[in-house]
Design goal:
Blueprint (H helix, E strand, L loop, with lengths): L2 H13 L2 E2 H10 L5 H4 L12 H4 L1 H17 L6 E6 L5 H10 L3 H6 E6 L3 H10 L7 E4 L10 E6 L7 E7 L2 E10 L2 E6 L23 E5 L2 H12 L2 E10 L9 E4 L2 E3 L9 E3 L2 E2 H10 L3 E7 H7 L2 H10 L3 H15 L10 E7 L13
Parallel strand pairs: 2-3, 2-5, 3-4, 5-10, 10-14
Antiparallel strand pairs: 1-7, 6-7, 6-9, 7-8, 10-16, 11-12, 11-13, 15-16
Helix pairs in contact: 5-6, 12-13
The chain binds S-adenosyl-L-homocysteine.
S-adenosyl-L-homocysteine (SAH) binds next to helix 4.
């Protein structure tokens, strides 16, 4: 049994079954035994790979996107480039290299990284040690300074904890993590939730029994949206998920690039769940922002010119590197389930007065 499982069982024995969000938050963020708190999960040797780790093209194109977004804000002399959940710092490293192509943008930059994991923050420090712009770290978005913002978040929202609800004959009930037959097990809170059906979009009301709904507290994005509304700015969120709120069980555990049981070996596997882009868009609109997308990652990267960029990189490469570039391109924009092009979506949440950013023209 993992040390975290011992602790989880002690909590459950003392307080009763816990909400899924608390379980997920402890698995990922427990200061001593949490998944992100204790390791670098990324890359071939880790548990999963993300777009910036697949190819430099991803970060370079996003870097140019950020420069265009800044121009759209009428090129303020100071802009805070914020990244939520920067992982190994690879995306920011590639973004800053691309920023060098727009010197006035680079000169305006102040980078702010929002990261809870001390292990990953240390890797980010190493990776970005040679950067020519000031960089600051924050444990939450609440610590960010005021002023114009360009925000990027890749595979950040999927790691924010979710709660889960199940429709039963007696109404909607909350799923909890308890103990059954000596093991951690999902169960349902006995009391049905009053008013839950009415809180759903009309098309999802009167769902069949057994339907599951997942809900996420996206407080960090709310914080960002408020700051964008107050000053100016835009946020680009890239993640895997669905366009509209829908039913389904999407909580997944991944370990060594394989799916695992989310209740087994807590703290040793990554936990994430699909992003509900409709909920994200609704939050941004509530804060008065203009929402564009979601569009698929494949469409977005193609519109930003990933194909000519791949051709350009291949020109100076030998045969094996050319193959790698082709494979990376396919993985980023391809439509099959093994690829990220369709499953991953991109949305922009911007101050209502700003022009549409590149990639979203007809979104
Ligand atoms: N964006 C990176 C890493 C994705 S992994 C990439 O694309 O490679 C998720 C990242 O979010 C990690 O850096 C993790 O430590 C961070 N993270 C998870 N929950 C967080 C939270 N609540 N606040 C800040 N960072 C968080």
């Amino acid at each position: 049994m993992t040390s975290l499982e011992e602790e989880l069982r002690a909590i459950i024995e003392a307080e009763g079954p816990m909400p899924v969000s608390r379980y997920m938050a402890l698995c990922l963020g427990h200061p001593r035994h949490g998944y992100y708190a204790t390791r670098d999960p990324l890359g071939v040797a880790g548990d999963f790979t993300t777009a910036p780790e697949i190819s430099q093209m991803f970060g370079e194109l996003i870097g140019l996107w950020c420069a265009e977004a800044w121009r759209g804000m009428r090129a303020p002399a100071r802009v805070r480039l914020v990244e939520l959940g920067p992982g190994r710092g690879t995306l920011m490293h590639d973004v800053l290299r691309a920023a060098k192509l727009v010197p006035a943008f680079e000169q305006a930059l102040e980078v702010h990284l929002v990261e809870t994991s001390p292990v990953l923050a240390a890797l980010q420090r190493d990776k970005l040690a040679g950067a020519d712009v000031p960089i600051a770290w924050h444990e939450s978005a609440a610590g960010l300074p005021a002023g114009p913002l360009v925000v990027i978040a890749n595979e950040f929202v999927d790691a924010l904890p979710i709660d889960r609800f199940v429709k039963t004959a007696g109404g909607w009930r909350e799923q909890r993590v308890g103990i059954a037959k000596e093991k951690l097990a999902f169960g349902l809170h006995p009391a049905p939730l009053a008013g839950f059906d009415e809180s759903l979009p009309t098309r999802l009301r009167r769902a069949p029994e057994g339907s599951m709904l997942e809900r996420r507290d996206i407080a960090p994005l709310r914080e960002i949206a408020k700051r964008i509304a107050a000053a100016t700015g835009t946020a680009l969120v890239v993640d895997y998920g669905h366009r509209r709120t829908s039913f389904g069980d999407t909580l997944q555990a991944v370990r060594a690039h394989e799916f695992a049981d989310p209740l087994e070996n807590p703290g040793l596997a990554d936990l994430s769940a699909h992003v509900d882009f409709e909920a994200l868009a609704a939050l941004a609109k509530e804060e008065g922002l203009r929402v564009r997308g979601p569009i698929t990652q494949g469409v977005f990267l193609r519109r930003l010119g990933i194909e000519p960029r791949a051709e350009r990189l291949k020109r100076d490469a030998d045969a094996s590197v050319r193959n790698d570039i082709d494979a990376a391109l396919a993985r980023l924009v391809g439509a099959s389930p093994r690829h990220m092009g369709e499953l991953f979506k991109v949305i922009s949440l911007a101050h209502a007065a700003l022009p549409i950013e590149p990639g979203f023209d007809s979104a």
